[in-house]
Every structure is written in C-alpha cells, then in structure tokens.
Amino acid sequence: MAKSRKAAIAAPAGEAIAGTWQATGSAREALINATSRWGVLTLAALLDGPLRFAALRRAIGGISDRMLSQTLQLFEIDGLVEREVLSQIPPHVEYRLTPSGEPVATKMAELIAAIHDQLPAILESRSRH
User: Fold this and answer.
1) pTM, entire model
2) Residue 71, domain extent
3) Could you write out the three-class secondary structure of the chain?
4) Number of structural domains, the chain?
C-alpha cells in the first residue's frame, strides 16, 4: 500500500525521527524560517551567488531593510547563510549560501518554479472564487 502524503511529511525520506517535527522542535523552526514569506525568496535569490545587502533587497523586491535583516539573521543562526565582511573602505558585506543552505535554496527555487508552472490554473481558480 502506498504511503500517504501526510506520512511522507511526518517522516522525511522515510526516516522515523521521533519528535523532530513537533510544534516546538528545531526542525520545525528551521522549516518555518526557510518557508516564510521572505525566506523562500531570499534563499532562491542567493542561488546565483553572493550578494550584497542592497543587491539582495533589489533581487527580492518589496522587502523592507528590517525584514531582510531579520531573515538573514535567522538564516545565519540556522547555518543556511553566511555573512562575510569584506575589508574595503567603506566596508562591504556579502551574503552567500552555506553548503547546508544550497540544497534548501534549490528546493525553494523548485517550489517557486512549480508555482509558476501552475500559475494559469491558480489564477483561473481564483477568478471563480
């Protein structure tokens, strides 16, 4: 019998990880950060390589400085993004994906592509409601 989608979500890649996906678990917190409104777009924007803060803000579009700063701080804590201060005058800061962040960002880009591919159906459904 095929495993349900809910079971696949509860135990990623078939692994039984007791308590990992509970509401207060670390994995749940990292998932919430990565899939937040701005998290998905921030990670996907960094897939093409390191970006300075202003360039990253422009690449995302519509995000405030404060929200981008908070999102990047959460990703630094989670180990998905690293911040590098370049020794220049004036100092420049670049953000890049870590080896742990790259596969997560790739999945976020796949999610964006899947939504884009289904956009005509989504828009058609919205027009009926």
Assistant:
1) 0.79
2) 24-127
3) CCCCHHHHHHCHHHCCCCCCCCCCCHHHHHHHHHCCCCHHHHHHHHHHCCEEHHHHHHHHCCCCHHHHHHHHHHHHHHCCEEEEEECCCCCEEEEEECCCHHHHHHHHHHHHHHHHHHHHHHHHHHHCC
4) 1
In a domain, 36, yes or no: yes
Look at residue 10 and tell me if it is in a domain. no
CATH of the domain at 110: 1.10.10.10
* pLDDT tens digits along 64-100: 999 999 999 999 999 999 999 988 888 889 999 999 9
